[in-house]
Every structure is written in C-alpha cells, then in structure tokens.
User: Fold this.
Amino acid sequence: MTDPRPAPREVVSKLVARARTRGLGEIVALGTARAREAIRSADELVFLSVDTATVVRIEREDLTCRRATAADGASFADEIGTESPRTFAARLSEETHCYLVLANERIVHSSWVTTHAAWTRELRAYVVPRDAAYVYESFTGPQARGKGAYPFALTNICADLVAVGTTHLWVAVEAENHSSLRAVTKAGFVERGRVAFGRQLGRLSIGAIPNDPDFPAITTNLT
Assistant:
C-alpha cells in the first residue's frame, strides 16, 4: 500500500499554509498543546459506523456539498488552511477524496474520506477500513460551527458511497470531543468500539482493539 503520510517537505508546506490562513498564534498554540499531550495525556478514540444505505441525505438551501478536485486547492488553502494547493492536490486519488461544504461559494467545512488508509496521529498508526470507507480530518470553520455542516456533509458522503457500492462508513472521534460525537450520531452513526491511548513522557500506549471482524485494522505497517 502507498503511505498516505506527508513527506517532511510537505509537512513544512502545510504548516506555512496553516500559519498564513489561521495565523502564527494557532501554530504556537498547537505546538504547545502537543508538547503537553506528549508529557502526560489519556483519552479514547470512539469508533462509529453507519450503513450508508440507511442514511437519508440532508437537504439544505443554504449549503451545498460536493467532492473536491485539484482545482479547489487554492480555495482550500485560503479557507481551511491545513494544506497548500500542492499538498491538497497530491492527496487526492481514486481511493482518497475530500468533500467540501460551501455557503455562498465559500468553503465552510471539509472532510476527507478514504477506502485505503489514514494516518492517525493519536495512535501513531494507520486506520485501514475493511471493505468500507473511513472519514477523517473533518473541519468546520468558526462561522459555520453549530449549524449542522458536519452532519450535512456526512449524509452527502453516504449518498455518494451508496452510488459506488460502498455499504459502510466509519469515523473515529476522541471521547472528549462531545460536539463531534453529537454530529456523527445525528447523521446515523452508531458506536462500535473504543480504543484507549495515552502518553507518558513521549511514550505512547494503546489499549486493546475491539474483537470485531468489521472493525478497521489499526497497523503501523502498510506492506
């Protein structure tokens, strides 16, 4: 399998784009939070899934949802800020897509979806869906938070997956992220298991993986 993690040069490009869009203060705050997290932290990733055929697409007059193309790279860099135009285009493939929610032609939400593998920072491992899709790196802009953009995106993603025969969609949310848990539950997702993780002086520990044949594989090796 191809490694979906960005190369060091791409990481720098992504940080520059993020600093330009969201400000240097966010980069400093993020670095500080990650340092504290590495010293001592504990949480759980809650894994939820939904049968895509059971999801009813949410219709909105104020929002539209569509799959992104490489041509959206500049807008994504300007409005979401986690990718440069080049790294955004490089991530798109037949197996990995980005969905955009727009209001008045401006991007207010983005979610990445893959049937391949997603690098997960919390576990320092890949999450690999089994004959399914996995949604990750979802972000809603401050102006759209609390207005249903995330559930709207998820139901539209499910509709597209049904059209290509993908029957299940998975997502993982940190247990303390209550707003995201409410959003995915609103879209019809049901909890299927939890994976505990923690850090002590930079050392990561991971709890047991649920014994479910449909549960995504969690692996440090894609070969």
